[in-house]
Each structure stands twice: as structure tokens, then as C-alpha cells.
Amino acid sequence: QLQVLEVVVFSAPSYACQRRTTLDNHNAILTDALSLLAENAELSGEDGRGVAFRRAAGVLKGLPEPVTAVTQLVGLPCLGGHSLRVVKDILENGASCEVEDTKQSERFKVLKVLTGIFGVGVKTAERWIQEGIRGLQQLQDSGRTLNRAQQAGLQHYEDLNQHVTRSEADAVAAVVEEAVASVLPGARMTLIGGFRRGKLTGHDVDFLITHPEEGREVGLMPKVVSWLESQGFLLYQKTTKNSYLEGEDGPARPSSNMDRFERCFSIFKLTEEVNGEGLKPWRAVRVDLVVSPISQFAFALLGWTGSKLFERELRRWAGHKKAMSLSSHALYDNTQRRYLRASSEEEIFAHLGLEYIPPSERNA
Ligand code: TTP
Ligand code: MN
Ligand code: MN
Ligand code: MN
């Protein structure tokens, strides 16, 4: 009997925002490897290489079945020689030397531990390493002056490096909901970030808050924060004021991709009552709160739902393919020289000439 072996050759459009990427990843071994190399590049200040590895991983995350041979990948975008070599090593030898060496490298391990402290970025970690610091205990003993965020980060290191579960996210949501309803009836709160994309765990919980009447959201954040503080829910918080300037005929063009919403980076004290059973009476959870006026809500929702690669690719698509500038506040058409309004994510995708991709398929 003749056996016909069918080998699938994959294909995919090149921008992540053109692809539907669910959480059903059939190539986790490969994408974990590429993500690790991306992380190592980012920790070494090589952002360009980091993006290249993230894009390569993004393409593989969307494939409908496991890759069995590199020949299946010939037609795919974003897979450069370096990424293909890593994939080939894993397919043929079960592992990539480069990935294994990176995992074992002292520098990578120390950078991960130090940047794993909330409030510590690559630059600070680099400086400490140069000063001879190799771990948390050493940092604590060194008597270095830490800012408020870093102190809280060190204090709650273990909790904050433990995944937040969906049920913990729901418990936080109930608290934030109550806070918002108490300080401004009619205000709305939406779960954003990874949990909106359907992830079962996250490194934090993200919320977007708005009010259906434009302007009513002004001054909301300090009230929410005060309420949470008075109820003993906050172990740490830093609120950043809205620095977005309203222009004559619409919001001013943002100068960078950093958005300027009023936001609060916080650490919640999730107590047993809301946490369900557990061995400890409470645990620390990172929570991000963002407030947007209703006129910018769709842009904020799209911009804060992620994934980070999906966001990056949306902005790249807008700029390169459409001559438009997309931010979490607005969409500007550089050809027509005007802002394009939208009151839903669907409208933004339509403005961009993209098929609508729901949150659960933005997991590139
Ligand atoms: P994150 O909370 O960092 O990431 P995540 O929710 O996708 O994943 P995790 O489960 O690990 O928490 O960011 C959520 C989204 O918010 C992400 O798409 C990028 C966006 N964002 C901004 O727009 N500005 C910011 O300053 C930050 C920190 C995030
Ligand atoms: Mn599948
Ligand atoms: Mn998040
Ligand atoms: Mn976040």
C-alpha cells in the first residue's frame, strides 16, 4: 500500500495584527525558546534583536499545528536566519545550545532576579551588577537607597513573582468595582491586559475606568485610590496625572507611544475573605488602573488589551501601510491631516483597513 506523507508548508501575513493568534499554541517549545532569546536581548539593551525574536515567536504562536521540519517554514515572514537556526536545533537535537547557554549564564540569571523586583529596570540592574550585587540578599545587605517602588518590590518579591490566577483577578475586580461605584456612580470599569485576552494567569491585573458622560471622569483616580487606601487594600500606589493636552479640534498628537492617561501602578493586599482559602492571610498582587475619557475609550481599550507585540504591530501597520499614527488616545490620518473618531475597537480596525481581531485572538 502506498503511503502519501503530506507535509504542510505554512504561510502567514507578516503583521501580527493581520493574524488570529489564540492561546492554543502548538509550538510552545519553540516559542518559549525564542521568547527567552528575546528577553535576553532586551535585558542586554539590544531592543532591535529583541523585537526580531518576538516577531518570530509571534508567527510560530499562530501556526495551526506543530512544526516538524524547518522546510515547512520557508514561506513564513519574520523568521530570520538566527531564529530558523534555533528552531532547526530544537527540531533536530531536542534543544538549542544558544538557548541552554543563555539560561545557564550568570549574567542572565542575575539580571532576571534583579529586574524581577517591581520598580527595577534594566539600567538599575546593570548598575548594581557593576557594583558587585548578585542577588536579593546582597542588595538588601548593601544598604543601597531604594525608592518607594523598589522597597515595596523587594518586600513583596515572592508574591509579585508568583502568577496571578483568574480567580484572584476576579477578586480584585470585585474590589475595584466597589471602589469605582462608591466614588462615582455610573462610572464603568473594564478588565484589560492579558486577562481580557483570555489568559488564565498574569503578572498583574489591569483595569480601564471611564464614565459615559465626557468630563465626569476628571478627578476620579484620586478618589478611587483614597477609597482603596481607606479600606486597607493598598500596599503601594503611585498615581501619574493625565498629561494629555486637548487641542482645538481634538486631542493633541502624542509625541511618542507612551500614553498619558491618568494611571495608578499599585500593589494590592488581597485578603483571605476575597482570596478564598489559602495558607497565608493575604497576598500582594500588582494592579494597574487607567482612567480615560469616554471619547478616547475605544483607543485606550485597544491600546491596553495587548499583547505588547500585537500593539507594536498595530502601530507599525498604521504608520507604514496607512500613513496614520495610532496611540492609546487617538488615530491620526497623516494624509487627510485629521483625527479619525471611533467609539469601538471594530471602528478602529476598519479605519486601519484591517479585519477585526477579537481580544482572544490578539495573543501574538
Ligand atoms: P501588561 O500588564 O504589562 O501585559 P499583559 O497584561 O499583556 O500581560 P501580563 O499577563 O503579563 O500582565 O500590559 C498590558 C497592556 O498595556 C500592554 O498591551 C501594553 C499596555 N501598556 C501601555 O499601553 N502603557 C504602559 O505604560 C504599560 C505598562 C502597558
Ligand atoms: Mn488548534
Ligand atoms: Mn497585565
Ligand atoms: Mn499591567
Q: What form results from the Cα inertia axes?
A: globular
> Which structural class matches the secondary elements?
alpha+beta
Describe the biggest sheet?
5 strands, mixed
Give the distance, in angstroms, between the N- and C-terminal Cα atoms: 42 Å
Helix and strand run: HHHHHHHHHEHEHEEHEEEEHEHHEEEH
Poorly predicted runs are 246-256
Rg from alpha-carbon coordinates = 22 Å
**Mean pLDDT value:** 94
Q: How much strand? A: 5-15%
What do these coordinates show?
With 364 residues, the protein is an alpha+beta fold. 43% of the residues lie in helices and 15% in strands. The protein is built from 16 helices and 12 strands. It has helices at residues 28-43, 47-61, 81-93, 97-104, 106-115, 122-130, 136-142, 148-155, 157-160, 166-183, 193-196, 220-230, 272-275, 297-305, 308-322, 345-351, and strands at residues 164-165, 188-192, 201-202, 205-210, 234-240, 246-247, 250-251, 262-271, 282-291, 324-326, 331-333, 338-339. A 5-stranded mixed sheet has the order 2-4-9-8-5, with helices on both faces. The protein has a 3-stranded antiparallel sheet with strand order 10-11-12. A two-stranded antiparallel ribbon has the order 1-3. Helix 5 crosses helix 6. Bound molecules: thymidine-5'-triphosphate and manganese (II) ion (3 copies). The site of one manganese (II) ion has 4 residues, from loops.
Structure summarized in a few sentences:
Helices cover 43% and strands 15% of the residues. With 364 residues, it is α+β, with helices and mostly antiparallel strands.
